[in-house]
Amino acid sequence: MQQRPNPPRGSAPRQRRPMTPREYEMLRRQRRQQNIKYLAMLGAFAVVLIVAVVLILRPKPSRDAAVQTAAVVTAAPQAVATAQPGGVNLEDPRDADDAGSTDSIDAEPTAAVETPLPTVTAVPTPRPGGLRSVRMRVVGDVMVCESQLKAYKASGYDFHPEFDYIKDALSNADYTMANMEGTVGKYNKSPYSGYPQFNCPETILTALRDSGVDFLTLANNHMLDRFFDGLKNTVTWVEKAGLDFVGAYRTKKERATPKVYEVNGIKIGFVAYTHSTNSIERLAKGLDPGATEYGVPYIQKADIAGDIKRLREAGAEVVIAFPHWGEEYVREPGASQMKYAKKLAAAGADIILGSHSHMVQPMMSKTFTDADGRTRECFVIFSLGNFLSDHVLQYTDCGIILEFTISENSDGTFSCGDIGYIPTYCWQPTEGDVRVLPSGKYLKEGPVGMTEEAHDRLVQSYQEITDVIGGDYPVLQG
User: Fold this and answer.
1) What is the DSSP code (8-state) at residue 293?
2) Which of 38, 74, 109, 226 could form a disulfide with 187 if both were Cys (CB 3.0 to 4.6 A apart)?
């Protein structure tokens, strides 16, 4: 296109002729049409913007409508903070297992595989129709020892009387859990037995169920006491008793299947691990290799982060971990317990319920901030102590019923609160005839038939338990 030459300097400016009325009207019409187009474009852009904002901010589908969405509670940061009672500190635990461990699995440090923490795949959102909650109770080791087998043989191994004094407390919850220590059900022609290889009649399961127990963790150092067949037998009997469970697996498929149970509308995922099987996996000749490959969830070999991530993917809104860990007959957690508590919390466990020491150990609750800036709590008790046994050594003849409530918050997250406990005592009117008592109800006077010596020990055990837990959590009466 040729450019129009500029007028010579000093020449008069070019004069515009005035527009005719017709031209003026045409120009006004064109501008009006352009304005309408601009307004239409601006309106369309505003509509798109509003739709985008609504899509971003609208509530996600509820978990009942979409079970496969990711969990509401996500991975915690790497650090676990200082415990409140008992001076327990998880801030910088020694990266070593407890001294004196007899677990041959501990001799395989290369077996542990570190995995990345789970990623956040969904944002917690409120659930329409009201907030959900579940009140839970849990007890420690349930053991049927040799003297108990002798005491209850004449009754056909009816263990219901062991829980006569405590069944109201066990059933006074929405969901009650326990650690079943040892194997259940006859193994070939071997007789029932106590320590060192526990194997008791399946009637213990019906007694627990009828007394209010709903769930068992089966991962512990005695789970191979009747070898892999005994482990499988135990799982089968637990299923027949109608109890929920975690921690022992008959097949690879069972080991790979996340354990998620719905209680009061809340989907709760469970994992369980043990640090030892008392070297049976190494000493037993001809032991099925499946026992160590998938039957027993050894904590040293476990993909903890992967296990919890799979629970979340299966719909778990809250994760409870049952580690069987540490040293026996100590009242304070060791380095190994602190190390794995940190790993479990970092992997996304919300509640950690420990066992194995046969003595009550401290508990704590800590608030964490995850990678997305959201907060959640992780509660841990290092050992619940003995719930049922014939042990008579100091600190081993008692335990607690721990109570807590899982509550849904208005933003769709969950918290663990209203934490309290009931001290318990194992009274033996005669040798092996164990009766579990809620200690607080009998501080002034024991049940009929209790000797003064036994009552003094009940009172002393109550004080020992409250001392080790400290004053941060209330003592419940029943």
Assistant:
1) I
2) 226
pLDDT at 350 over 50: yes
For residues 368 and 377, the answer to whether their CB atoms sit within 8 Å is yes
Count CA atoms closer than 13 A to 364's CA, side-chain side. 23
Residue 108 has pLDDT above 70, yes or no: no
61 three-class SS: coil
Selection from 272, 284, 268, 291 nearest residue 407 by Cα: 268
Task: Dig out the tokens for 117 from the structure.
Answer: 């923490």
Sign for the CA dihedral angle at 215, 219, 221, 223 comes to positive
Q: Could you read off the pLDDT of 113-130 as tens digits, one per residue?
A: 333 333 323 334 455 568
Which are the contacts of 217, defined by CB distance < 8 A and separation ≥ 6? 177, 178, 179, 180, 245, 246, 247, 270, 272, 322, 324, 353, 355
Give the CA dihedral 221, 222, 223, 224, nearest 10 degrees. Answer: 100
Nearest to 324 by CA among 353, 345, 292: 353
Count CB atoms within 10 A of the CB of residue 441.
16
Q: Please state the rounded mean pLDDT for residues 452-468.
A: 98
Q: Which residue ranges form the domains of the chain, and what is each CATH number?
A: 85-97+136-469 (3.60.21)
CA 197 to chain centre: 28
Q: What is the per-residue pLDDT across 140-180, written as a single tens digit (0 to 9) for each?
A: 999 999 999 999 999 999 999 999 999 999 999 999 999 99
- Whole-prediction pTM value? 0.77
CA atoms within 13 A on the CB side of 26: 5
Cis bond leading into 196, ω under 30°? yes
C-alpha 218/C-alpha 199 separation (Å) is 13
